[in-house]
Design brief:
The protein has 471 residues and is of the alpha/beta class. Helices cover 39% and strands 15% of the residues. The protein folds into 2 domains: 267 residues, P-loop containing nucleotide triphosphate hydrolases (Rossmann fold, 3-Layer(aba) Sandwich), CATH 3.40.50; 121 residues, no CATH class. The strands form 2 sheets. The protein has a 7-stranded mixed β-sheet, sandwiched between helices. Strands 8-9-10 form a 3-stranded antiparallel β-sheet, with no helix packed on it. The radius of gyration is 23 Å and the shape is globular. About 6% of the residues have low confidence. This is YcjX-like protein. InterPro entries: YcjX-like.
């Protein structure tokens, strides 16, 4: 394992040296990673971002576009022929149809390239012609990103962590029953292994549906062509003192290490380690609605995700000797259109407080971070309603799977994030003094003027933070 890790490191370093030395003679490339856990809105974010870059009428805070320095942007084939292309056209068609619907979510890695003709600024800008900058958008499931935290854990450590947080989680009782019926110290039996893995997978799926975030291994949720393979047929086990070589415990330990070696490490080496900028989409409202335990689980999951990043400044020497590093990370609380704009500052503050520990670590190593509340596609309009003598800021939209228009007030988010994060950290089962609701809205029918992309909230500010300095 040490030799494999060393070889991967050397390979990445050689590639970094080659890229760095050739960079002055090639067109610059920005590799933007887009991730987030299930239902955070990755597919919609990328689709709306691309549509609003191609038609920049709604991007006033994206300075290169607002100043007119971007002359044109166009789609090109992505440079990696082995990675599926992000299906932008079909996703946009779903959102802009006469009866719009949400596109299918992210289930695998995909990529898309945009090329931009940009007029440089500065003292020499007026003497130079426009240059081409390529933007490679890499979309991958957040569940896969969580797996990067497994690289520094052995089977015993991972098992102990998973088993310690089973209590109270959905479908945990069924898995616990299956676990009690086996003896990890006894000989390995394949049907028993399949039963344990199936019960554990059912628990992971139920936990994700209930709003929990830390559900590793991620490929158990999105197996693809690995479904049914031994590398996805294991489960956490209680620690066994000096287990025998052909015991269930030893075989599951072997499969756990194989998962890290054959699934997690290639993803890091081939895709994740090449990213320059990163946006992490967070369904903060969904976690709050699910309760304190889901909020605390999201905090731990995001800390693990950030622990997998290689933050730092992408200077010439840094790239030459250490490889690519992520130098800007945006944490975006999605579905801001489910709240009146009066509550957006509270949502941003809660997101920032939730990620504070991990954010401090990233900034210590030289990366720049920011938290923001966004809606990649705005589905609601704002209204003010009088309720018991008080004016409430509400949002109104079409409910998902119905034709009903409904005004919605989710509850008042606290101005002090500690009022949410305190109960979450202490293990409270419910919010004591509030009940936060959530509504599922359908995409609204759009009538777009020429030059306008889909309506959004702060997508232009997100683009400016992630890309502005490169343009």
């Amino acid at each position: 394992m040490v030799i494999t890790t060393l070889a991967d490191t050397i390979t990445r370093s050689v590639g970094a040296v080659t890229d760095t030395l050739s960079a002055p003679f090639t067109e610059p490339v920005i590799r933007l990673g887009v991730t987030g856990l299930s239902r955070a809105g990755k597919t919609v974010f990328i689709t709306s971002l691309v549509a609003n870059l191609l038609n920049r009428g709604r991007m006033p805070q994206f300075h290169a576009a607002a100043s007119g320095r971007i002359q044109t942007i166009y789609l090109q084939p992505q440079p990696d022929d082995t990675v599926p292309r992000f299906d932008y056209e079909n996703h946009l068609a779903a959102l802009t149809a006469k009866t719009p619907h949400w596109p299918e979510g992210t289930k695998r890695i995909s990529e898309l390239r945009l090329s931009m003709r940009v007029q440089p600024t500065g003292l020499l800008g007026s003497f130079q012609g426009p240059r081409t900058v390529h933007l490679d958008i890499v979309d991958y499931p957040g569940e896969w990103l969580l797996d990067l935290s497994l690289m520094d854990k052995d089977f015993a450590t991972w098992s102990a962590e998973v088993l310690s947080r089973l209590a109270g989680r959905p479908a945990a009782a069924d898995f616990a029953t299956a676990l009690e019926a086996c003896d990890p110290a006894k000989g390995f039996d394949e049907p028993q292994a399949k039963g344990l893995a199936a019960a554990f997978t059912a628990h992971l799926n139920a936990a994700r549906e209930a709003g929990f975030s830390d559900c590793t291994p991620g490929r158990f949720l999105l197996p693809g062509d690995l479904e049914g393979s031994p590398v996805l047929t294991f489960a956490p086990l209680p620690l066994v003192d000096r287990p025998a070589r052909k015991s269930l415990w030893r075989e599951f330990e072997r499969r756990f290490e194989s998962y890290k070696r054959n699934v997690v490490r290639p993803f890091f080496r081939d895709h994740f380690a090449k990213i320059d900028r990163q946006i992490v989409l967070v369904d903060m409202l969904g976690a709050i609605h699910s309760g304190p335990q889901a909020v605390e689980d999201m905090r731990r999951a995001m800390a693990d995700i950030l622990g997998a990043f290689r933050p730092g400044r992408n200077s010439f020497l840094t790239r030459l000797f250490q490889g690519r590093q992520i130098d800007k990370i945006l944490f975006a609380a999605t579905k801001a259109d489910h709240l009146h704009h009066q509550q957006h500052p509270q949502l941003t503050a809660i997101t920032q407080a939730l990620l504070r520990d991990a954010q401090d670590r990233v900034e210590f190593f030289g990366a720049t971070t920011q938290a923001m509340s966004i809606a990649a596609l705005r589905t609601t309009v704002e209204e003010t309603r009088n309720h018991k003598g008080a004016n409430l800021g509400v949002v109104r939209g079409q409910l998902l799977n119905t034709n009903e228009q409904k005004a919605f007030y989710p509850g008042a988010l606290p101005s002090d994030p500690a009022h949410l994060l305190g109960p979450a950290r202490s293990g409270a089962e419910n919010w004591l003094d509030a009940d936060y609701e959530i509504m599922s809205f359908a995409p609204a029918p759009l009538t777009l003027k020429p030059g306008d992309g889909p309506p959004h909230i702060r997508l232009d500010r997100a683009a400016q933070f992630l890309l502005g300095d490169k343009l």
